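Our preliminary data section would be incomplete without showing what the modeling component actually yields. Below, a chain of 92 amino acids is followed by its predicted structure, encoded as tokens that our downstream tools consume directly.
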Amino acid sequence: MAYEIPVTQARAELADLINRVVYGGERVVVTRHGKPLVALVSAADLERLEAMGDPDDEQVISSVSRIGSASSTADEHRRFGIAAEHRGPETR
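Predicted structure:
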């Protein structure tokens, strides 16, 4: 399990967090408003993640595709300043 810390606290404790990751073997998840933002992992963990490569990429692409298929509302368009949206062939 990873250690979670808010981004504001992580800024103040960055050197300590790096030591926890490098020397303590911990993984640190930095959060904003309680949601995961980034993770600090050792270089060895990063190498293992990168070596795994393609299967993870396919899973992420699949997840993003499912998320991308959700329709957005007119309120969201105004809120985020979106002038147009892409609609796939099934929503025309």
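The radius of gyration is 19 Å. The helical segments are 7-12, 14-24, 43-52, 54-68, 74-80. Preliminary results of this kind motivate Aim 1 of the renewal.
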